[in-house]
């Protein structure tokens, strides 16, 4: 199957591949070799797609697998804010593609999974490649969207746009994703606009109080969603009324 090439915003280049181990891995290799970016890497297939914490991302043909290699004038700590930005970007990308009985059942799950009807339709992986000096960082933002198919029997149930009657080609999806990414990167302003990104994320994550389970290594915490801290950390309200700041972990919605 052949896909038409998407139109990207000015200044962005595209590397189109038929198959690769992982678009993120390819982006990291090219960054290490001196690729200046910004470069989108898009492949029809992945043999070793990656998710967070080293997990496999099931890469079914017909879905979107794309990574953006980006150099930003910000230290790595600031560049890590792009994890939340990636969630907002993909949420907005999906809203531009979905029309289902007049309803949008999209929800952000910390830090950047997008759920459709409480099933995962998209996920992002932010990787920092290097820091060149105090205020220069190289990052890769990987995005996977289940357009045509979805994996089954996962801890977090998945779904595809096709299951909702929405037909979008990977090329069209990437064109929307690239344009939306550029819009939100401009708003982020290499960290100066992070309060805007944080507010946008909160507006798309639903009300506070929802029961959550957070897996941190072998340990599991249970509490309720209490929003985000000023730096983007997840706030988890415990049964005794105290709050925990979650900087890393797997989040699952508990049955209400």
Describe this protein's structure:
The structure is a single chain. With 256 residues, the chain is α+β, with helices and mostly antiparallel strands. The protein folds into two domains: 13-203, Bira Bifunctional Protein, Domain 2 (BirA Bifunctional Protein, domain 2), CATH 3.30.930; 211-253, SH3 type barrels (Roll). The chain has helices at residues 23-32, 76-79, 82-95, 170-188, 194-203; strands at residues 13-20, 39-46, 64-72, 106-109, 113-116, 119-131, 137-145, 211-216, 219-228, 234-237, 243-246, 250-253. The strands form two sheets. It has a seven-stranded mixed β-sheet with strand order 1-2-3-7-6-5-4, sandwiched between helices. The chain has a five-stranded antiparallel β-sheet with strand order 11-10-9-8-12, with no helix packed on it. The N and C termini lie far apart (43 Å).
- Spatial strand order of the main sheet: 1-2-3-7-6-5-4
Query: What is the percentage of strand-forming residues?
Result: 25-35%
Envelope shape: globular
Percent range of helical residues:
10-25%
- Total domains: 2
Rg measurement, Å: 18 Å
Name the features.
22% helix; 5 helices; SH3 type barrels; BirA Bifunctional Protein, domain 2; five-stranded antiparallel sheet; 2 domains; 256 residues
Describe this structure in a few short sentences.
This protein is of the alpha+beta class. 22% of the residues lie in helices and 32% in strands. The strands form two sheets. It has a seven-stranded mixed beta sheet with strand order 1-2-3-7-6-5-4, with helices on both faces.
